[in-house]
């Protein structure tokens, strides 16, 4: 069956064929959604006759790796949006439009990738004149004068063409061949993003929604490119079929990530993981995507040597993907805190909380925590005077890498603390007094100690009470 066949002919060939009335408003919304997605490749997208979109891509060929790579990306985007496209490339807008019409109407099965105006002129001369946008209006006159191709039309006397067809034919030929300017009205992206999609059938599985949501995400990526922005989160709203009297009509899935991004593949990956963990309350018949957490996009630099920002961005995306898979609360990051107390000197927070880390806590006005300088111990203690300080190598690190989750209370043997064996101190006193501002104050004298087998430990003695505790172990 060929385009342009009658209704009776179509029903004769396919009696079970279902015919639908054309909905011009719905078709226009579909083309605007497709134009929004294609803004990811160029800010210059315009509408043309015969359901055609024109993209000016000359300035972005190097960015996307050449003509073939760019056309492949455009074709993949169009397919992701649920459309089939016939794509042609030419130096002029009307030239590309005509070559695309030749392939769409099967006049030619060739994929037209014309880059030079001289090649375009030869290609246009060989095409049927019926492809021109004015051909339907002057079809009978063109047939009577034996004009079969655009080359035949171009070779006719100019005065005769103007007298018979008007000035528009010559102007169109000049614009198609690149001999005259062709100003266009470019499609303008809306100031805010809100895209919706009516599903063709009810969807009962959350995983199956990803195929339809891909169209909305591709539109979002194009809109962000047009706005020179990036996104740190969006909301996917689900419209449900009323399965019961108490089922809500709508629900929503909120996604957020640490580093702003506009990469559609990354956003789809996060959405896929979110949908895999979601159970629908009722079948879904419609989707809507709302994005309001938009920030300025910092484009990556094409430098000879990789910048630190690039590695940080990749690590952030890795954290986001792991968090989407196992849960954000299970992805922790360690941080050093501004606190002398060993049990508070390090904290583990979720990677998202660490991205917006608050300022470190500051003690209130009053007595400040202090560490006694090495070689200048504070007031001597009875236990310290009873210990020897042998000449043995001390640990290279001032703190052990292994801290006990809870300090271990040590027994005493004579004047020495015991951990399996009696311990002997190797350093002078290091005093830590801190924590009065949060109600967890400590007053401790710390030592590096060792047993008779050379194993080293980090322990402290309470200034009040004199009890010894084991805090950590050296490797």
From TrEMBL:
Record keyword Ligase present: no
UniProt-annotated stretches for the region Disordered: 345-393
GO BP field: DNA repair
Annotated CDD domains: PolY_like
Presence of the UniProt keyword Ribosomal protein in the record: no
InterPro entries reported in the protein's UniProt record: DNA/RNA_pol_sf, SulA_CellDiv_inhibitor
SUPFAM superfamilies xrefs: DNA/RNA polymerases
UniProt keyword terms in alphabetical order: DNA damage
Signal peptide extent: none
Protein name: Protein ImuB
């Amino acid at each position: 069956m060929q385009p342009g066949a009658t209704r009776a002919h179509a029903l004769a060939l396919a009696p079970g064929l279902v015919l639908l009335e054309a909905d011009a408003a719905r078709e226009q919304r579909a083309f605007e959604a497709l134009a929004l997605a294609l803004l990811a490749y160029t800010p210059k997208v315009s509408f043309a006759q015969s359901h055609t979109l024109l993209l000016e891509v000359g300035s972005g060929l190097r960015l996307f790796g050449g003509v073939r790579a760019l056309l492949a990306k455009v074709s993949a985007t169009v397919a992701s949006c649920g459309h089939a496209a016939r794509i042609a490339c030419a130096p002029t807008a009307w030239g590309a439009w005509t070559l695309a019409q030749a392939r769409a109407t099967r006049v030619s099965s060739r994929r037209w990738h014309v880059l030079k105006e001289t090649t375009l002129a030869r290609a246009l001369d060989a095409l049927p004149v019926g492809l021109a946008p004015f051909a339907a209006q002057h079809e009978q006159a063109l047939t009577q004068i034996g004009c079969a191709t655009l080359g035949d039309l171009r070779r006719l006397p100019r005065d005769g063409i103007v007298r018979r067809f008007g000035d528009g034919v010559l102007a169109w030929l000049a614009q198609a061949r690149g001999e005259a300017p062709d100003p266009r009205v470019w499609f303008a992206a809306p100031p805010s993003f809100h895209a919706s999609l009516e599903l063709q059938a009810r969807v009962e599985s959350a995983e199956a929604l990803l195929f339809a949501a891909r169209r909305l995400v591709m539109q979002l990526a194009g809109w962000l490119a047009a706005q020179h922005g990036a996104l740190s989160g969006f909301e996917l709203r689900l419209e449900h079929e009323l399965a019961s009297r108490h089922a809500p009509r709508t629900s929503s899935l909120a996604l957020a990530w640490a580093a702003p991004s506009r990469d559609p593949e990354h956003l789809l990956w996060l959405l896929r993981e979110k949908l895999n963990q979601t159970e629908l309350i009722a079948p879904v018949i419609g989707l809507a995507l709302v994005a309001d957490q938009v920030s300025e996009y910092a484009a990556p630099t094409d430098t000879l040597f990789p910048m630190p920002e690039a590695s940080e961005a990749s690590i952030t995306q890795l954290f986001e993907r792991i968090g989407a898979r196992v849960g954000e609360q299970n992805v922790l990051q360690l941080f050093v805190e501004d606190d002398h107390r060993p049990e508070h000197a390090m904290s583990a927070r979720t990677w998202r909380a660490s991205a917006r880390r608050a300022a470190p806590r500051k003690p209130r006005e009053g007595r400040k925590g202090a560490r006694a300088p090495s070689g200048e111990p504070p007031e001597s203690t009875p236990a310290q005077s009873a210990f020897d300080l042998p000449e043995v190598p001390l640990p290279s690190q001032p703190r052990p890498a292994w801290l006990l989750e809870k300090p271990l209370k040590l027994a005493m043997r004579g004047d020495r603390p015991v951990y399996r064996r009696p311990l002997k101190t190797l350093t002078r006193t290091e005093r830590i007094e801190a924590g009065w501002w949060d109600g967890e104050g400590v007053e401790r004298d710390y030592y590096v100690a060792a047993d008779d087998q050379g194993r080293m430990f980090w322990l402290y003695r309470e200034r009040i009470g004199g009890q010894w505790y084991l805090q950590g172990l050296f490797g």
